[in-house]
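Retry 2 of 3 after timeout on previous attempt. Resubmitting structure tokens to design endpoint.
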């Protein structure tokens, strides 16, 4: 089966639809999308490749959604603060997991959504970490977004649990 940008984007829109802040919407994805990695450079936004520009720009012309997406392990990273949307590809699931838990991943205060895709399908996950009391607790992005002290919060020993 060929995976298209519409296929990925529609899953992202549906998955975030219950977000009280509104979630993602298709036209926004098609206008903002850029890429990192090796598999989808054909979708790179040329406006963001200028080394003299230090901010992310939307496309001059939105993608159509019919564009083919390559890669078995993908992440769609959305930062509402900028706003920016990046499709990342990884050769192995372990690298996708490392990106989700890494410094720019879902635990990052500025990451609004980091959606994982495996073989073209959204792959929901939870992240668990050690609380100060030592128990394993589920990371809550919504709580992080509303917590004024969130920038100082650390999440020791995070792990992904695929749902």
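Retry 2 succeeded. Sequence:
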């Amino acid at each position: 089966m060929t995976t298209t940008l519409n296929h990925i984007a529609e899953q992202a829109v549906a998955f975030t639809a219950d977000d009280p802040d509104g979630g993602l919407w298709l036209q926004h994805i098609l206008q903002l999308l850029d890429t990192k990695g090796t598999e989808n450079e054909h979708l790179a936004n040329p406006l963001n490749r200028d080394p003299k520009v230090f901010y992310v720009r939307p496309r001059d012309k939105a993608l159509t959604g019919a564009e083919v997406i390559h890669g078995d392990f993908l992440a769609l990273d959305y930062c509402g603060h900028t706003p920016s949307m990046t499709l990342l590809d990884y050769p192995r699931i372990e690298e996708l997991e490392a990106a989700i838990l890494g410094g720019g991943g879902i635990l990052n205060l500025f990451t609004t959504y980091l959606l994982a895709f495996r073989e073209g399908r959204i792959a929901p996950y939870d992240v668990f970490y050690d609380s100060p009391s030592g128990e394993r607790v589920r990371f809550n992005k919504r709580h992080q977004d509303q917590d004024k002290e969130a920038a100082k919060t650390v999440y020791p020993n995070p792990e992904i649990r695929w749902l």
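Attempt log closed. Residues 5-16 form the longest helix (12 residues).
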